[in-house]
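protien #1 (seq + structre)
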Amino acid sequence: MVDRQEIEAAMASVIRAIGEDPAREGLQDTPRRVARMYEDFFSGLCQDPSAVLTTGFDESHQEIVLLKDIPFFSICEHHFLPFYGIAHIGYIPCGRVVGASKLARTLDILAHRPQIQERLVNQLVETIFEALKPEGVAAVISAEHLCMSLRGVKKPGAKIVTTASRGNFSTVAATKQEFLALLREA
């Protein structure tokens, strides 16, 4: 659980440290707003991402199920700046499917923590693989990192692409190729 009062006090200190007055009219509510924002941004810290995957349906579908173009954002743990983009999640059910919203919700829970993209994609795939016990699961995440766009190398528009896979997506080349071909389709 986020400690709003501690964040508010810290934010007031930051405002003073940059040479501003936290009591100034335009800044007076900023510490409170930042605390509420952080509560939302880091809401995944107190949630179990596998819990949303427990509601499913018995189905005999044994081909790839793909949820594409899922928008997301997270906070880079190195600079506390956002990174945002899209994710694609595919899995091959083994007798049980989940609603598409459950996959997106799992992504949101994991993304709403201090993160790095490489960990996020691995946690996403591992959570789905453990919870659903599918034949395989794979994910691709493409994101722009504001720590690269606004500071440092200042390369707006540059994206990092990460992938992870388990089961048949890792061991069967044709399955991986089918997944990648589906991603190219509109």
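ok now protien #2
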Amino acid sequence: YMFKHPKEVCMSYLEHCMLSLKFSSLLFIGSIKAFAHALYPDIFVTSTSDLIVDIKKSMEVAGCH
């Protein structure tokens, strides 16, 4: 087995890869929204806190329980 980490979190390489890519996408979009919110505070008011909740939920159901 080439990589230890996916196995340590009870995931296959592909499962881990897809989840990490999902998080990367969510964080990229979240970063853009946070930047826009910094410049114009009346938009994306809850986007960062919503993102944190969404990522936490995803992590709770992925891999080892």
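The CA atoms of residues 37 and 50 lie 14 Å apart.
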